[in-house]
Design goal:
single chain, about 70 residues, alpha+beta, cell membrane, transmembrane helix
């Protein structure tokens, strides 16, 4: 198996697990960020957290791989 197939399989498993977790956690939660109190479904919070982590990981990889002068 080549690296592209392995990445595709791992990505599919992660998306499937994320879908199951989000589907099972739809109740409302209150999150306090600094002084703000936000009420939202736990599924939205999980998706938001996943998206932030994915973006930060991608940015870290992008800056780490860029050539330095």
């Amino acid at each position: 198996m080549d690296a592209k197939k392995i990445k595709l399989i791992v990505s599919a498993v992660v998306v499937l697990l994320l879908g199951v977790i989000v589907f099972q956690n739809y109740q409302e939660v209150t999150v306090q960020v600094l002084m703000a109190s936000i009420t939202m479904p736990l599924a939205i919070l999980l998706l938001l957290t996943f998206a932030i982590g994915l973006t930060l990981g991608w940015l870290f990889k992008l800056f780490r791989a860029s050539p330095r002068k």
